[in-house]
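Bug: token stream looks shifted between consecutive jobs. Job 1:
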Amino acid sequence: MAIIGNIIKGVIEAKEALSSEPNPIDEQKEVLNELLDRAKDTQFGKRYDFAAILESDNIQKAFAEAIPYHDYKKITEEWWSRTIDGEPDIAWPGSPDFFALSSGTTGKKSKRIPVTEDMIDSITRAGRHQVYAMSNFDMSADFFEKEIMMLGSSTNLQERDGKKEGEISGISASNIPFWFKKYYKPGDQIAKIDDWDERVLSIAKNAKNWDIGALSGIPSWMELMLKKVIEYHNVDNIHQIWPNLRAYTSGGVAFEPYEKSFNALLDHPIQIIDTYLASEGFFACQNRPETSSMKLITDNGIYFEFVPFEPKYVNQDGSLTDDAPSITLDEVEEDVDYVLIISTVSGAWRYIIGDTIAFTDVERAEIKITGRTKFFLNTVGSQLSVNKLNDAVKHLEDELDIKVPEYTLCAKRFDDGFYHTWYLGSDSKLDEEKTANVLDDYLKSANKNYKVARSKALEGVKVHFVPQEMFAEWSGANKKKGGQVKMERVMGEERFKEWEDFVSQKA
């Protein structure tokens, strides 16, 4: 009998039963009040007169009118550079002990994002939100006694000027509570291995010693790890190694493009639970099984605003125009793409995280990630966001019975005009011209702007198949394998030339 599991499950269910239904709108107002009050004596708070904003009749409106939008470049040049240099009380009280390194999906130079103790507490509380939500997923008591494979970046944090730095998944894993270490795999020793391939090989060698019930990590790297374990032990699927595997907590990117290839590694379906954890904080998690949407965590030190994702408000580099209007949680509408803006307990203020989201249920404050502001393909007026590109790839998988977990594309100029040039990561090789026609026909039928573009400057679609492994090798050559690294879905022409040169060298 799963005694400990029954106790844990009982605590979770009791917690949920005793919790009153929160009001996300009221919670967000309270969070903004707390943020402004905590930071009013910082350099940022004095510059923008947080004390006066707190006296306003409408604090949310006064806040939006007083503080400009910040992307990473702007807030670092004006504020965080001083925090990085060790000066306290700049954008948040005190001085952070950690910096999250993030190269995101573009660029080779890592960003250094402050991670305060308040933010670590916020991430920990968000993790508890997720655990409490497990009462809705009908997991048996023995599930809560199984081990959890958390596949993130190395926990071997680097020290610099008295501060520790690494990717946010490594920082989080290095700060897990002592009582959780019993369940945490691959364990401290393996998690500290910097080299991705060496770390995954160590996981494979030890895999049979663990009773894994849940997985957590970015889908692309999770797939590669599972493949390595399956290959190392010469089995057909991962359930032959971990028979009690029942759940996968995905995050970082939309899971849908990976669904078909991921499920091919299983003996039977498992519960997929989406989360939204970025270098800047833990924003949302799925809390009920009947939807893949995630509930914004609205009471946890992060204040959200939303800018309609329209070309007139978004610059080519993904930043926002100065006149782009923001709205609050009580004003959002369902099925509208918004640029997500955050203000946090790490001193991010009206910060453009670079993601776009859409609400699937306003009352529940449930969202889905729809793409990236930089990955908006609009060179020739096609106005394709990542979620629309993902939909096209999913249609392609269904239509041609293939698995395409990774892809990238560019509106590339040829002698006769622009073509959307796709590289599809798949171990299946199909007729590229036929595949291009399937993509083109679907996009014309599903997106009116694309159809108009096809009648004007966009000449058509070109498709190239490359092995799925090519995308991991590209990430390794340009940034670093594993962790928070995500593939660019859309590239500019200069970056795309680098990609094509890389592919031709590897061919």
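Job 2, same session, no restart:
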Amino acid sequence: MQYTSTRGAATRVDFRTVVLSGLAEDGGLYVPVSLPQFSANEIANWSWLPFDELAWRVISPFVGDSIDEASLRSLVSDSYSRFRHRAIAPLQQIGHNEWVLQLFHGPTRASKDFAAQLQMRLVQHFLGENGDRAMLVGASNGDTAVAAIEALDACPGARLLALYPRTGTPGDRMAILQAADSGRVCALAVDGSFDDCQSLVSRLFRQWPLPDVVPISFNSTNWVGVLAQIVFYFHAALQLGGGLRPVGFSVPAASFAEIYAGFIAQKMGLPINQIIVSTNRNDALHQFIHSNRYNTGSSSHTLSPAMDFSLFSNLERFVWELYERNGPATRALMEHFEYCGELSIGNRQWLQARMLFDSYAVGDAQTREEIATLFRETGCAVDPHTATGAFAGRLHRRNIGAPMVTLGQIAPEKSAALLAELGAWHGEVPASAALGAPARVLGRDDLQGLGEILAQLQAGR
């Protein structure tokens, strides 16, 4: 398996290079030159497989000969060793042909554990004894960084730098980030939004200041962040129809990687008949899918904070696919977007996307009502992000005869206070995290200061 850049660089690289990367050399994102294809019968024959074996079947074609079969099997299986449910990602029924795929049984109780646990083991495999020369860098508004820090034990030599917005990060996640500072980890508050954090990280990768240190993204700009999530779709479809029955998915827009992963799963042969993108009032993705207008702008705080942003890096991979893997066309579109903050694609490409995708923006009042209604009618407690997906899935499903699966990305207990207020939580409500002032707050454009912090972290100071 070879990989190329979304922006048309001629150089092709192997899976090892992709794992140990931030951005491609030309500033694009790495993508596979071709996708593995599975027949309906081949997929159907996987219906009896446990999750880790299914994951190996889906992941191994993307790895190629970069890792031998025995090592990859062991590595993939070990990635799920700390999950608390024997099914890894169980399904819970919430209505007629309506389901929630529970992706929150990992060590940090969020779907980000799938990519983080897999990525750290892949990084460790490829770096081996030189792991101390790797620096994992990324932006997060909570769960992604917490999952990466938790998984760092699997890569003992590497160091990690996480940027998070000073306001808008949930208190319990911020407390973990503030407590994580050590000789190997630096969690740094930024005086700006999550989008500002993302932009700063992208600039850092393009102007990397430490030539002897391998820069690796722990965000889903790294292909592993997408690869780990393709498995979700195969797992759910096999559980609900043996891989032969069409299935729809509703995806809360906490990351475009999960949305794009569903698109890739369909191209690989999985019978997905619809993907609904649910947003909150920060509706940049809804506007893109519904009206072919994508704009970044200021984000407002909502009940679903993991969705409070408008800059989605994996949208570039999706555009590349829609433009039939045309690197120069993708480069022109993305450079225009980076310059003016606006993006529209060709009408033919947009109509192609609409064949699979629908979207809906869910307000806080609708989210509250969905949480309360689901608990009252099913006894199922869901967090606000899952509630947006369940609401949008019920409202916009195209085929009531096909199962509709909402990706449940965050454990409900992480929103216990809100759920208790709505009468949808009868368990213990954790006390609010005690937060101190961040030791240092980085300006949203302070690339020089970020480089100095990187050097100090690499030196163990």
